[in-house]
Write a structure and sequence with these properties.
Layout: H1 2-26, H2 35-39, E1 42-49, E2 55-62, E3 68-73, E4 78-83, E5 88-90, E6 96-101, H3 105-113, E7 125-130, E8 136-140, E9 142-146, E10 154-159, E11 188-194, E12 200-211, E13 218-222, E14 232-236, E15 244-248, E16 253-259, E17 266-271, E18 283-287, E19 295-298, E20 309-311, E21 318-319, E22 325-332, H4 360-365, H5 367-371, E23 375-380, E24 385-388, E25 396-398, E26 407-412, H6 420-423, E27 428-435, E28 441-449, E29 453-454, E30 460-465, E31 470-475, E32 480-483, E33 509-512, E34 519-522, E35 527-530, E36 539-540, E37 549-554, E38 570-575
Antiparallel strand pairs: 1-2, 2-3, 3-4, 5-6, 6-7, 7-8, 9-10, 10-11, 11-12, 12-13, 13-14, 14-15, 16-17, 17-18, 18-19, 20-22, 21-22, 22-23, 23-24, 25-26, 26-27, 27-28, 29-30, 30-31, 31-32, 33-34, 34-35, 35-36, 37-38
């Protein structure tokens, strides 16, 4: 019977093949799809919806050619099309759509073939589309823009460097003082525009800028104009019509800068070294409106900074969500190569040793990452005290509640580096409890084989333990260890159909409840409600196993960290049978 079925299948396939050939022969005028049709096919990308749900924005991207932006009025089912536009943003008040419109690709390629200089090529145009009136405003030669996602009113746009006009027949007697050139190094004009207004507030020679997340506040670095505008850092509060100087110094060089979420505090990295040292001596400064000058938070001579350590320029300063703490990075002084040697005088040797913590190829793979690595420190703004949180052995440090929680958890993988060679990943690690208020550190667990996380409010550290395939948690307040699942349970919470020679993974955690009161845990099909303090009382919320249908939570808000008890949530389902 098997042989007959195989023979029948073979004849069926052969028959279909000849049928297709015959059909093609009967339709000689039917067009064959080729490269032209392939490259004209559009992909939908960058889709987003306005905050009030009345407008939709998305891109049509062909394989070759210019993208197209579509803005749809969902009430009237009407589309507005803007060519050569790859991405846009809706204003928070649902009044405007803002995007950059690029020159045609074919025109740019033609000009480049003619060897036209980069600064003479056509540049992007900023388009401000008023949704209610359909009015369009265009501003030429815009390099970038920022439209805050959580507060309305202001738009910042950064101009391309101006191209100086060459004047013919200009004699020495008619020459005026040379104006500082705008370029990538010197910066260019930044404008603050209140949407709906026609005039904008200007700051010259800006090299970088940013805005606060949740309330008005802007920060910008300017190289100055060598006369009235002094080089430094400037703040715009979203009210009034001027930029407030935060830190001015003609010799200053700036690193990363940060604003608190509410926009009322600023921090930045700077140095005034003129020796062009390979490793500049960066400092961390703090400022808020009303202060006459900034406060120096940390430099290489600060008491809490270890000897032979420096402020790292590879980690951006960051405020906790409530603005009470400022986090920044420290790193050991790097070993610098002798720059007096010629390339042929530098000896290139690979030293392999059986007792290396990491295999030599792994060392080389991680070399760039290791050179840029930094370790976390914190400054308590009200107390004006700083602590070094993450000694060199710690690989990573997890904070909770957007940096507001008292406790953090650190990894230390160093005792287990070698074991990766025969155990593979996930690698083992020790967990340490770090008190952000005092800087003290306490060992929580040893040899954890899994990636630990912190609950949203920072009450629990937890992980899926791969060596025994159960969920484990530690209550940080009293360091009590709790097994959240048990493989004697039915069902189990590891992957039931895992069929490779490795340990099975979990199905994951869907979400946490408010104040870390509980979390939603997945098995193969269902969602379970688990109290981390009393996991034996877990409850099954869905009934998917009976129908072999899986249920999963859909997180609509990417910034959402927990669910409220009375909240309605959206689930997706998938049937394993049909």
């Amino acid at each position: 019977m098997l042989q007959k079925r195989t023979l029948f299948t073979a004849w069926t396939i052969l028959g279909l093949f000849f049928f297709c050939l015959s059909a093609k022969a009967q339709n000689p005028n039917k067009k064959t799809l080729g490269h032209e049709e392939l490259v004209s096919w559009n992909r939908i990308t960058q889709s987003q919806i306005s905050h009030d749900g009345k407008w939709l924005m998305y891109n049509l991207n062909p394989e070759e050619g210019d993208p197209t932006l579509i803005i749809r009025d969902l009430d009237k089912e009407r589309d507005f099309t803007f060519e050569r536009t790859s991405k846009g943003h809706f204003s928070t008040d649902n009044a405007y759509a803002v995007f950059l419109q690029s020159p045609p690709q074919d025109s740019l390629k033609a000009l480049r073939r003619q060897k036209v200089k980069e600064d003479k090529l056509p540049k992007d145009t900023l388009v401000i589309f008023e949704l209610a009136t359909r009015n369009v405003r265009k501003i030429a030669r815009v390099k970038s823009y920022q439209l805050p996602a959580k507060w309305p009113g202001w738009l910042a746009y950064h101009m391309e460097p101006a191209v100086p006009e060459k004047k013919e027949n200009e004699s020495d007697s008619t020459k005026v003082a040379e104006v500082k050139k705008e370029n990538k190094k010197n910066g260019s004009k930044l404008f603050m525009l209140q949407l709906g207004d026609t005039s904008a507030i200007e700051l010259g020679y800006v090299s970088s800028y940013l805005h606060a997340d949740e309330a008005p506040g802007w920060l910008a670095q300017s190289t100055g104009d060598d006369s009235l505008l002094i080089a430094g850092l400037y703040y715009f509060a979203g009210s009034g019509d001027e930029w407030i100087p935060v830190y001015t110094d003609t010799l200053a060089k700036f690193g990363d800068m940060a604003l608190s979420k509410q926009g009322g505090q600023a921090a930045f990295l700077t140095h005034s070294d003129t020796t062009e040292a390979q490793i500049p001596p960066f400092e961390v400064h703090y400022w808020k409106p009303g202060m006459n000058k900034t406060t120096l938070i940390a430099d290489s001579d600060s008491d809490f900074v270890p000897e032979e350590w420096i402020v790292s320029s590879n980690r951006k300063p960051a405020f906790s969500e409530d603005g009470s703490r400022l986090f920044f990075g420290l790193s050991p002084k790097p070993v610098l190569q002798d720059t007096s040697l010629l390339p042929e005088e530098i000896v290139q040797v690979e030293v392999w040793h059986w007792n290396d913590e990491r295999l030599y190829p792994q060392q080389m793979e991680r070399l760039k990452e290791d050179k840029a690595r930094s370790w976390l420190a914190v400054y308590h703004i009200e107390d004006q005290k700083a602590h070094f949180l993450q000694p060199e052995a710690m690989d990573n440090l997890l904070t909770a509640d957007e940096g507001n929680a008292r406790y953090a958890v650190a990894y230390d993988q160093s005792p287990y580096y070698k074991m990766v060679s025969w155990e593979g990943f996930p690698s083992r690690r020790d967990l340490l409890l770090v008190d952000l208020d005092t800087g003290t550190k306490t060992k929580l667990a040893e040899g954890v084989k899994g990636s630990a996380s912190l609950s949203p409010k920072g009450k629990y550290a937890y992980w899926f333990s791969s060596q025994d395939t159960i969920w484990k948690g530690i209550r940080l307040a009293d360091q009590a260890k709790i097994n959240w699942t048990d493989n004697s349970e039915d069902p189990v919470f590891y992957q039931e159909e895992h069929d490779t020679p490795s340990v099975p993974w979990s199905y994951g955690i869907g979400a946490w409840m408010e104040n870390d009161a509980a979390f939603l845990l997945y098995d193969r099909f269902d969602i379970w409600y688990v109290d981390p303090a009393a996991p034996g009382n877990k409850r099954r919320l869905t009934r998917g196993r009976e129908k072999e249908t899986s249920y999963r939570y859909i997180q609509l808000d990417r910034d959402k960290r927990f669910l409220k008890a009375d909240e309605t949530i959206l689930l997706r389902t998938f049937s394993d049978t049909d």
